User: Fold these one by one.
Assistant:
Number 1:
Amino acid sequence: MKPLISRFLLVILSISFAYSPFSFAQNYPDKPIKIIVGPGPDLLARIAGEKILEDWGQSVIVDPRPAAGGIVAGDSVAKSAPDGYTLLLSTGSYTINSVLQPKMPYDFQKDLTPVSLLATLPFILVVNSSSPIKSVKELVSNAKAQSGKLNYASSGNGTPAHLAGEMLKQMSGADITHIPYKSAAAGVTDVLGGQVNFMFVPAPSALPFIHSNQLRALAVSSPKRYSQLPDVPTVAEEGYPNFSIVGWNGINVPAKTPASVIDKLNKEFVKIMRQKDTQEKAIAAGFEPIGSSVEEFTQFLKRDISRSSEVIKAGNIQPF
């Protein structure tokens, strides 16, 4: 009987080892990976997909699901199998929704796990090039002199661009009217047409108009100057030292994804984002490439949620 029991235990141990996280990570990935993209560009997902195919020999499917400001995309990833084969290209919309939306179908912080912060991009505070306003100080001064008459556009209620305008409003004490649009392009059109006074525009969307002298850049929203507009100051430099808000792209996976798989994914994305050709493509598209550790991205998300929460509560911003 004892030899039989011993053989039985050996079989059980062999099966357990075969399905251990270590063994799983060794075999991962052995089938195609899907990156689900919510709002925003899918550029970094496509770049990463090409590199993963080269490095791991597995194809990457980029699946756009922009509906409901990323809620659909985030929910689909949060409820997918935690096996490393379904990834989310996350953005600032997810941290904002976690604060702004009262009845989310999933919990961004509990149901999704950070892998790496891929890149950031600033929002550029712009006015029409024919505007007499040439600095943030002049903008605030004009807004205070014409209380409630100056307005700013955004790509929608509760978007990062909206929060950037609201942050400036709160910090400066100026009474400025928010006008939400259905897209950044629609808002920019009315800034160009003179119907709107200013706007915080995502860098990739703003740069062509700035370079063609149709829009004037007053400041950037990031805590440090933007590499593509080195002569343009930050809002912080213009008298609001605590002003900081950026757009970003990161990778998240379902909670309970094995730590060994997360580690393998993190190392791959960090490697990708630090390669020269990737950085050149990202910079050309307006991004500031990073590639962070899991811990760095986790802390970044906590700060982003905290900052969004403060602005949303102070401004009594309601869901769209």
Note: The mean pLDDT is 92.
Number 2:
Amino acid sequence: MQALITGVGGFAGRHLATFLSQNTDWTLYGSVFEPVGTHQDLQDSTGVWLRRVDLREELRVQELIRDSRPDYIFHLAALASVGRSWHYPWETISNNVRAQLNIFQALVTLDLRPRVLIIGSADQYGLVHAEDNPITENTPFRPNNPYSVSKIAQDMLGLQYFLSHQVPVIRARPFNHIGPGQARQFVAPDFASQIAQVEAGAMEPVMSVGNLEARRDFTDVRDVVRAYYLAVTKGTPGEAYNIGAGAAHSIRELLDTLLSLSTARIEVQQDPKRMRPSDVPLSVCDATRLRDDTGWAPEIPFERTLADVLDEWRRRVAAGELD
């Protein structure tokens, strides 16, 4: 079997490549946007064959699909920052839709029908009401940021190619996932990096935070990529699957847990610049469909995930690797 992971150099992509290299005998191919050499460690540790491809370029995508001839495609590549999408809405929407469309068109042109997992987001559900929780796959979409619109478009595009061209598409809708390797613009590594800098004496013992009251369903990324594998191998083509732990933690709880693991006494200050134009008070996942179809369940506790994130940032700060 051969598998292609787009965006393999990203947060979830790296964890997925590691999981597949350790749990399957598949030949792994991966696309990256950056020079291949910047991901040499990933290639060395997982054996993934890397190709630098701008997925917005139709002919390059067709070459990638033709050369790898995958049995499975994990389409992870996307602009994934909600905050950035407010400033660059068209870039977010056009990038995420065009890249996926090029993959589907390549499959149709080459007459290939691998099982394709496309990655949506809990943000598709948008402004959910309290009574909507826990959120099922039938909860209406109420997008409240440009990123969520791009993910709805990807989701519907996947359904369309399943219905129109019989491409066996499985649509994943992961809720918030956290863990080692995540970029600093996301909440857990943002907090952890600040704490690690304070502990190292590189920053005053004052942390800047945004909205702490929002409650989210956080799942360890290592559990999430296992869900991706089970969804693409055991899921029903055309179906959508929520992925989440089924429990909500407030951002304040996340922060307090990280602070409890710290050796420093730190003051917390709210920064208006970190507040988003709109936010959802509560989001809890109902992953019953995924559990019933694949047997998946999360295994890594919330506290262990945060401890791993903080330990990673302690190592990075000690090594001078903040960027």
Note: The longest strand covers residues 27-32.
Number 3:
Amino acid sequence: MRWLGGQESGNIEDRRGLSPVGVGGLGVGGVVLALIGYFVFGISPSDTLQAVGGAGAPPAQQAGAAGSPADPEGRFVDVITTSVDEVWSQVFKAGGQSYQRPGPTVLYDRATGTGCGLGQSAMGPFYCPRDHRIYLDLAFWQELDSRFGASGEAARAYVIAHEMGHHVQSLLGQEGQARELGGRGATSGSVRLELQADCYAGVWVAHVAQVSGGKVALDPKDIEDGLRAASAVGDDTLQRQTTGQVVPDSFTHGTSAQRMRWFHTGVSTGDPAACDTFGAAKL
């Protein structure tokens, strides 16, 4: 994957190495629920944190360094998030809309305060709609490789673009649409929201080379790596790995096949309108 030389916006807050000051209103039980939800049922950590964390103030946390990180892994996140912002800014402009970039992406390790409660690294990367930020412990890259078998920079870029897709949904009101739809299982609002975010990640792939002037680009092998990452985090695959059985009624993100299909839809069309999982008769 090509990314060195890509633009860095510095929309990063680096909390790595800092210790949390407090844990706010979310206790250990809430953290355990979030971990079980993520690894067993694929539930979005932000959803669990909001459900158990209440509407109180988020945990206190030392502010991290703002700006472009100096290390390669931090720079990679900066380049990819900047690139995704650039693509969506162009897409929104073409549709006569104004794009608002998210708050700084927070790099942390172990645990950190978020607008949705206490975030922990075991939850994996997530977007918090309350503060419009992505939270990412870079140790997840090793987890993505060793646990899920999805290695490489393109797989990591897919994860970032997917979380940025949730920000796009927040701007367009689709997150609220998913909550209003509700439901459980394979056709729930949650599944439709997550599959749409996969498709939005594909839309970024379709436009990134042109928008970045070729400084950030994915070749066909990179796209395969992205598809592999999408497959690795399908509800059926995660459930099979953790419990040995698949329970469709508890799906929240979609199957591996669905996640790959919607990501590919975004890549092949480059059209956000093609990502209408809420209007799709078949997911």
Note: Strands lie at 12-14, 65-66, 105-107, 111-114, 117-120, 126-128, 133-136.
Number 4:
Amino acid sequence: MGVIGNWSRRAVLAVALAAGSMAAAGVAMAEKLKVAAIYTLPVEQQWISRIHKALNAAAERGDIEYVYSENVANTDYERVMREYAEAGQQLIVGEVFGLERAARKVAADYPDTAFLMGSSFGPSGDNFSVFDNWIHEPSYLTGIVAGSMTESNIIGMVGGYAIPEVNRLMNAFMDGARSVNPDVKFLVNFIDSWYDPPKAKEAAFAMMDAGADIMYAERFGVSDAAVERGVKAIGNVIDTSADYPDTILASALWHMEPTIDRAIKAVAEGRWEAADYGQYSFMKYGGGSIVLDESLVPADVVAKVRAVEKDIRDGLFRVNVNDARPVSDK
């Protein structure tokens, strides 16, 4: 009594529950959003690494199935976009600087696919949304650090390309430095490459030879030069202080999670529309932050930074957005 064949009712119930759980898991797996990313550089590159990190976090939570292509040439970008759309990817993420028209044409051809692309321009159609790394606010704060700590009053700045996304961060940094040190001068150089550490390093050495004692490291290679010469550096987008001990005073960090998580939620809930997601890189949304090495930065400078940071977060101070190409002081 109490046995069905060789199975107890408890065992049958357990199997039924297990089957139900497996079925539910199967449904959950089927409901995972399919997301693809297309990157023109390796995922280790600082700007791209922030997008990749946010998407990996969503995948690890079980929210999405994530695939990506890296080192995609501009000439192949449109083809890869179409392949992902044809494969049924529901959200396609990437950066389309330099191929705006082609990317927007692809999006128009796949109205049921959501596109979220790094862009210098606005959204288009019903499904092409844009984002950018609006971390001008923490960049201004790192400028306060540099302007307060330079002894030579000469700061070197090495950038990739003079495009709005880079220019606004460099200009904000310069404004922050000048806010505490009106005598500071800047040496500015663009290497016309997103990834050429030797060229960036060479440009940094030239600036140090001209008297720069703090370097703004917008590109990889600058901090390596700083280590070799024993000068300090300011980081950008990612925190590299562990790789350059006793060198990185502060870094303006970009956090892509607020942008990515909102995009995933919108697609999953069927609310996707063409929109500008750039604001989610602002500090108020957690999209930007500053990290300081308080073993290198004096307490009074830290206090200055924290006071302005609080005003930014409270809406009492607005960092100017200047997309113009920064130039060296004469």
Note: The chain has ten helices and 13 strands.
